[in-house]
Amino acid sequence: QKEVEQNSGPLSVPEGAIASLNCTYSDRGSQSFFWYRQYSGKSPELIMFIYSNGDKEDGRFTAQLNKASQYVSLLIRDSQPSDSATYLCAVRAGYSTLTFGKGTMLLVSP
Amino acid sequence: EADIYQTPRYLVIGTGKKITLECSQTMGHDKMYWYQQDPGMELHLIHYSYGVNSTEKGDLSSESTVSRIRTEHFPLTLESARPSHTSQYLCASSPRGTGLSPLHFGNGTRLTVT
């Protein structure tokens, strides 16, 4: 059974701080990793994806992947109240379907 | 911006009714998916398709059925709605090829069965 684990939160950070969201996965064959943001009552929207070990930066977002530790994280710099949402980690092995974690709720206070 | 459309956006219907949730995409994606999500809960894959005339059941047992007669269209049908079917239904698509492509989601259909 493929598992993707996330702390449900909520993770509370003040505006301007760095938010760090973490995700672990059980399938060592996983090859592609995705972070989605989901506002309450809305559908998930893609934030970032990463395939290779190391860091990938896109604006205020940085995804970090460590396949040896089966760990992927998302850093949000200069957090804004508009970043308050649930962040979903999703993992895929080969051509299989995506496995989603339960998500971490992030609250950014002004 | 992904072009994937779901209708209706909201649906309230009585027990026992047959309903079809529509999903269409204009991107030519071969792969399409249906997820079910209760408020504050995780996404559960209920059906997916890798192309025309190809459909598979997902991880979550569902009383719904799907069809894929055209690449762009992937409707989900409940033959007899029950209150336990009350949930949000999300359609998604991704292109064929490597397993590296992300999913693009529609806006969802929020279904309430009374």
Can you describe what's shown?
By secondary structure, chain A is mainly beta. Chain A is built from no helices and eleven strands. Chain A has strands at residues 4-5, 11-14, 19-25, 32-38, 45-50, 54-58, 61-66, 71-76, 85-92, 99-100, 104-109. In chain A, the strands form two sheets. In chain A, strands 2, 4, 5, 9, 10 and 11 form a six-stranded mixed sheet that branches. Chain A is globular and about 40 Å long. The N and C termini of chain A lie far apart (40 Å). The mean pLDDT of chain A is 94. Chain B is mainly β and 114 residues long. In chain B, 0% of the residues lie in helices and 47% in strands. Chain B has strands at 4-7, 10-13, 19-25, 31-37, 44-51, 54-57, 65-66, 76-78, 87-94, 104-105, 109-113. In chain B, strands 2, 4, 5, 6, 9, 10 and 11 form a seven-stranded mixed sheet that branches. In chain B, strands 1-3-8-7 form a four-stranded antiparallel sheet, with no helix packed on it. In chain B, strand 5 and strand 6 (54-57) form a beta hairpin. The chains are: A mainly beta (110), B mainly beta (114).
Layout of secondary structure:
The complex is a heterodimer of chains A (110) and B (114).
Chain A: E1 4-5, E2 11-14, E3 19-25, E4 32-38, E5 45-50, E6 54-58, E7 61-66, E8 71-76, E9 85-92, E10 99-100, E11 104-109
Parallel strand pairs in A: 2-11
Antiparallel strand pairs in A: 1-3, 3-8, 4-5, 4-9, 6-7, 7-8, 9-10, 9-11
Chain B: E1 4-7, E2 10-13, E3 19-25, E4 31-37, E5 44-51, E6 54-57, E7 65-66, E8 76-78, E9 87-94, E10 104-105, E11 109-113
Parallel strand pairs in B: 2-11
Antiparallel strand pairs in B: 1-3, 3-8, 4-5, 4-9, 5-6, 7-8, 9-10, 9-11
